[in-house]
Design brief:
By secondary structure, this protein is an all-beta fold. It is built from no helices and ten strands. The protein has a four-stranded antiparallel sheet with strand order 1-2-3-4, with no helix packed on it. The chain has a four-stranded antiparallel sheet with strand order 5-6-7-8, with no helix packed on it.
Length: about 120
């Protein structure tokens, strides 16, 4: 961490509702943000430009995570699903269902082969 904390380097603006979660890509070049506006946005960490808006959830997005190789993004939503996205194209690769309440958090395993999720359904 920098010794001279205090300067704001970027303010990422573009969501139309509150932001619940952010995550850096493994190389630090991108930031993903999860919002109550039902979207995930991928940002250029240096310029602050929005590179992609990932749309497909039917409720607010509560959590976001990059895969260890940075090629995929996972999102957890109030719509009771986890979605896996291609970080470059923005395409939804898979929708994971099974929770009976909103999904609070999502994380990739260190090898990127698994995703864990936490839900208000107590699982």
């Amino acid at each position: 961490m920098e010794a001279n904390w205090g300067d704001c380097l970027q303010t990422l603006e573009g969501h139309s509702d509150g932001v619940w979660s952010v995550a850096f890509s493994p190389d630090g070049k991108q930031v993903a943000s999860a919002s109550e506006d039902r979207t995930v946005k991928i940002w250029n960490a240096s310029s602050g430009d929005c590179l992609k808006t990932l749309e497909g959830h039917s409720d607010g997005v509560r959590s976001v995570a990059f895969s260890p190789d940075g090629k995929q993004v996972a999102s957890a939503s109030g719509d009771q699903t986890v979605k896996i996205w291609n970080a470059s194209s923005g395409d939804c690769l898979k929708t994971l269902e099974g929770h009976s309440d909103w999904v609070r958090s999502v994380a990739f395993s260190p090898d990127g082969k698994q995703v864990a999720s936490a839900s208000a359904d107590r699982t």
